[in-house]
Amino acid sequence: MPELAEVEYYRRRWDAAARGSRVRCVHVHPAAKVFRGADVAALRRGLTGARYRSSAAAAKQILVRFSGDAWLGLHLGMSGELSVAAGDYRPARHDHLVLATGGASLVFSDPRMFGRVRFDGGAGAPRWWTDLAPAILSDGFTRAGLAAFLQRRRAAPIKAILLMQERFPGIGNWMADEILWRAGLHPRRAGGSLSTAEQGRLWRECRQVCRLALARIAGVGGSLPESLNLRIPQTWLFWHRWEAGGRCPRTGGPLQRAEIGGRTTCWSPARQRLR
DNA sequence: GTGCTTGTTGGCCA
DNA sequence: GTGGCCAACAAGCA
Q: Is the pLDDT of residue A220 over 70?
């Protein structure tokens, strides 16, 4: 599930429970694929006894800074989740990393294991983090940069382009569909075929969907499903894109679905035309 | 059993 | 070298 706003939601969950506390015990399933490429022994050494200082989310990544120059990186993949459990929590089958602080346990679980856990030591944030593309809500996400990227990817369908993290960090399948639906752009339009006005709409809706998603999904307490139900209005495509026989919340007309860019894509033919 | 799934990566080919 | 496409990864759910 996790895209930009859900990732931020999970980060806040851990942060509220553990910021400032000391890790007393580190539990890992070292064989789990989520640790691919990570030095699990160093992770265990670096986090045991370290204090949880701060955390940040960018794109679909989370970085937690611990005392002693220890940096924990998390990617939730397709089915990853961060939760907070009791201090004496016993890890379940898909819990690959559990940090017990005494008062609480921080749990990273991921059944499908497309997610990833990284560990780095050093005075500054690791390279993989500092190399992330500028956030869509930052000044670094410019119309000119967007136009240049669309030109470079001129032959690819716009839906596939929006999923490219090198330019659209944090956008996933549902956000991409939401953006294109609001901008009135057919997902199969080639990147190079957009007029200046259409590029402008795309740029604005990228920012708007990120802003709204962060405010409505990440910015509330309670469980994630509750947040979605309470905070995402029925006027979004979000609620209608998976329903069989779903209808466009703006036109009332039928929605269409097809695989584009390797992902199931939903659009409203009445407001998103190919040409 | 079948056929999906809100993500990423590497390999193949033009 | 660059860009586009697709299978693979693994588990759960309807």
A: no
